[in-house]
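Postdoc handover notes: sequence design on the structure in folder B. Input tokens:
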């Protein structure tokens, strides 16, 4: 009522009584609506820097790995919120690490029944101070026996779903006219050398390599040939598809490759040839299928829906 009557200072004083109360999701649901009144014409800034302090014309929301506490309530400045809340507010500006400049969009493939993995990969990207306002979730494709030809194995169905989900991510990248896109599976995690990886990302983007795909994570097996101080050329039969940068040219090529692989995989069940991380090997011979010599990350240890067990490859 106080905020509706433009009695903002009185409203803020009233909400300060919450400092000694229990803060839960319902508390935030009831108080987030007062943010426009609290702003009072100031700009709302999103940041991942825990040391960011607001200027006179700003209200700052620091997104990170935070619990529900009084600092989460919108009368604070800065406000501290869990990364999962990033999409609850409309920000005037999002401050991210400038080393991400040049990555037009980030796509994460995630199943709606694995919100834990979505939460985890968003936390990874937040720690990397990535531009979350350029992040799009792509629904994972899960195929039942009735969705495909009779007799197709469970493993082949899983790989077929993966091919179709990765193709959906690239179709969205094409629709957004992305010159450089990053595609991640939802079990991706960065290594502890994050600052080095961000430096490598900036160097990669600045050098403007002629490439189709550049893996930021890959399997340990198979041939890779050093190219320079930053990259190698991959000639691996199986690479993994946990994370990769793809150029505009690569997006166009992979849309056709994945469409063909989807058809052939359903017809033959041949996962050794047409799985998502094998079929794209047709791009390797020209030497534009690249991999970072310092892998950015790998698949985090977690329960695998496909394998029905804890997967810990450290690959």
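Designed sequence:
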């Amino acid at each position: 009522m106080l905020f509706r009557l433009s009695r903002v200072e009185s409203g803020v004083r009233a909400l300060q009584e919450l400092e000694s109360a229990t803060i839960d999701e319902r508390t935030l649901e009831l108080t987030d609506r007062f943010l426009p009144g609290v702003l009072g014409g100031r700009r709302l800034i999103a940041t991942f820097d825990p040391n960011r302090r607001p200027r006179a014309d700003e209200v700052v929301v620091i997104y990170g790995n935070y619990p529900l506490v009084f600092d989460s309530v919108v009368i604070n400045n800065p406000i501290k919120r869990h990364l999962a809340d990033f999409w609850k507010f409309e920000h005037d500006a999002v401050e991210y690490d400038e080393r991400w400049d040049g990555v037009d969009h980030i796509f994460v493939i995630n199943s709606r029944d694995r919100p834990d993995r979505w939460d985890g990969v968003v936390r990874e990207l937040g720690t990397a101070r990535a531009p979350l306002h350029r992040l799009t979730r792509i629904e994972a494709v899960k195929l039942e026996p009735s969705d495909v030809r009779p007799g197709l194995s469970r493993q082949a169905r899983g790989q077929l779903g993966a091919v179709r989900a990765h193709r959906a991510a690239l179709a969205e990248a094409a629709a957004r006219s992305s010159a450089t896109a990053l595609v991640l599976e939802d079990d991706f995690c960065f290594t502890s050398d994050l600052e080095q990886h961000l430096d490598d990302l900036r160097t990669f983007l600045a050098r403007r390599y002629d490439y189709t795909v550049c893996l930021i994570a890959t399997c340990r097996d198979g041939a890779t040939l050093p190219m320079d101080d930053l990259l190698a050329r991959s000639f691996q039969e199986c690479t993994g598809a946990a994370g990769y940068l793809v150029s505009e040219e690569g997006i166009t090529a992979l849309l056709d490759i994945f469409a063909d692989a989807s058809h052939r995989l359903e017809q033959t069940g041949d996962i050794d040839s047409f799985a998502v991380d094998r079929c794209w090997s047709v791009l390797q011979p020209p030497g534009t299928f690249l991999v970072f010599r310092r892998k950015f990350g790998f698949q985090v240890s977690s329960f695998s829906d496909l394998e029905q067990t804890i997967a810990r490859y450290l690959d």
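Context for whoever picks this up: The chain has a mean pLDDT of 92. Don't rerun without checking with the PI first.
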